[in-house]
């Protein structure tokens, strides 16, 4: 079975597929770049900033990384 597809349509399909793969891989990379925090560091952070519950009524702006 042979399928005829225009060069432009094939280009757009490949471009979209590559874009999706790069997006997924960038998310994985960003997650890997988050530094590890051990229990002592986490305790120190909580002493300085308090628990997340302290900020539950705050409005935050979500940014794309």
Structural features, described:
By secondary structure, the chain is mostly helical. It has two helices and no strands. The protein has helices at residues 7-32, 39-49. The protein is elongated, with a radius of gyration of 22 Å. The mean pLDDT is 92.
Identify the notable features of this structure and list them briefly.
mainly alpha; 0% strand; 65 residues; elongated
First-to-last CA distance? 44 Å
Rg over CA atoms, rounded to whole Å, is 22 Å
Q: Tell the overall outline.
A: elongated
Helix share, percent? 55-70%
Beta-strand percentage range: under 5%
Poorly predicted regions are none
Please tally the β strands and state the result: 0
Number of contiguous helices: 2
Task: Round the mean pLDDT to the nearest integer and report it.
Answer: 92
Order of helices and strands: HH
Which helices and strands, and how do they pair?
Elements: H1 7-32, H2 39-49
Short description:
The chain is an all-alpha fold. Helices cover 57% and strands 0% of the residues. The protein is elongated, with a radius of gyration of 22 Å.
